[in-house]
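Can anyone check this?
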Amino acid sequence: MHRMWIAGGVLALGLAGAAAAQSTVADLMKHEINPAALAFWAAGNDPPENETPQAAQARWRAAEAAADTLRRQGLRLQAAPYARSPQWSGFARQMADAAASAEGAIRDRNAEAAFEAGGRLYDSCDGCHKAYPPPKR
């Protein structure tokens, strides 16, 4: 009897965890992916006026971390419980690939190559948001 209760509890926790993970896509976007995308794009944009060398280094370091975050989150969104359809997984793969393709450019402080990768990232975000509109808040 106790084994059944424990097994049922473990199953319920697993299902609750999967449901919770599925319901946190918006949170992933808000807290992980969107901030990382902004930091990623900052690498390929013109630097802010009067940017100090220290601020430039911080901007590039933030872009490096952002590329890693976007790559990892893109892989995460391709897997259960986040994966929704082959199209969804394709957009997530495109996001991960764009981030991975920029890692060398960001490491080398190559703004032009980072800008090009940023365009590919934008295409993945825009395409996904058109196919899967974010919920209205």
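Reply from J.R.: I decoded it. Residues 53-77 form the longest helix (25 residues).
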